[in-house]
Amino acid sequence: MTPYVADPVYLNGRWLPLAEAGVSPLDRGFLYGDGVYEVIPVYSRRPFRIDEHLKRLQATLAGIRLANPLAVDAWKAVVSGLVDAAPWEDQSIYLQVTRGADDKRDHAFPPSGVAPTVFAFASPLVTPPAEVRARGVGAITVPDLRWARGDLKVVSLLANVLARQQAVDQGCAEALLIRDGFVKEGAASNVFVVRDGILLAPPKTQLMLPGITYDVILELAEKHGQPLEVREISEAELRAADEVWMTSSTKEVLAITTLDGVPVGNGPNAGRPGPLGERMWQWYQDFKNTVMRND
Ligand code: PDD
User: How far apart are the first and last CA of the chain?
Assistant: First the structure.
């Protein structure tokens, strides 16, 4: 079986086998979920939009008032060290920084001498297989119970975990998060809606993670002349949509074909992936094969 994590992993300046990598049980990531992360897709051993991912990491670190432990070039060296050592052409690089381990438990920040914990590893990049894409996936809607800084990619993911598990319990792949009557995103993805040929995308606010894939979708829509509106999407519009998609670095563009058990869309194609999603997936593949693999 393919291992999920390649050896070596990176931990606090050292390269070591996963089995030998350990952190203190007093680490604030463990005690408080006090840390941040990134997931960077790698195509043909080329990290995709690494500068944008590292910028988002920096913005999240600033948002939780944690100094970035590594300069951009040092992060790039960590990522390329992982990519070079891993056996796969397409990978997913996971980076995590926590506020480190003090010698006591106290909610307030530890003294400045406490070093952050930096952990990173490579996994194979597994995108949805053709048969899943052909069918699309089911999603449920749930109230968005997360804190009010969804724009920060923090490891405190309990609300996301519970939402995603609720979806899995109901045989679905994703939970769409509804706040104040509007759909914000999925538990681990961004959401797009198609209505009357127009692509709708929720705006980047503090209540949504600014997805790197989301940006690519907007760029591809503009490049191909696809009508696009970036604005809040009401729950009613979501339920009346012709198409609903989820996007992320690992899911790419994936059609949601049932919502709370009801087929998405109208007419004979209800409950099937729609034409615009198919086109966007193809544009994404073309972009991946011409640009991402040669970046
Ligand atoms: N999740 N929104 C949320 C809440 C996410 O967790 C993610 C990604 C996205 C999409 O972001 P991007 O396009 O940059 O992957 C949106 C990653 C993959 C994860 O948590 O594993």
Answer: 30
pLDDT score at 3:
87
Angle between helices 212-223 and 275-290 (to 10 degrees): 100
Q: Closest Cα to atom 2, ligand 1: which residue?
A: 189
Say yes or no: CB of residue 127 within 6 Å of ligand 1. Answer: no
C-alpha of residue 209 to centroid of ligand 1, in Å: 7
58: tokens are: 């920096």
Ordered structural domains, the chain, with CATH: 9-124 (3.30.470.10), 130-292 (3.20.10.10)
pLDDT at 293: 87
Catalytic option among 55, 153, 204, 288:
153
Residue 2 pLDDT greater than 80, yes or no: no
User: Is the pLDDT reported for residue 1 higher than 80?
Assistant: no
Kindly state the DSSP code that residue 115 receives in the 8-state scheme.
P
pTM: 0.97
Give the tens place of pLDDT for each residue, 42-75. 999 999 999 999 999 999 999 999 999 999 999 9
Nearest atom within ligand 1 for CA of residue 41: 15
CB distance 97 to ligand 1 below 6 Å: no
> Which three-class secondary structure string do you get for 41-95?
EEECCEECCHHHHHHHHHHHHHHCCCCCCCCHHHHHHHHHHHHHHCCCCCEEEEE
Say whether 104 is catalytic: no
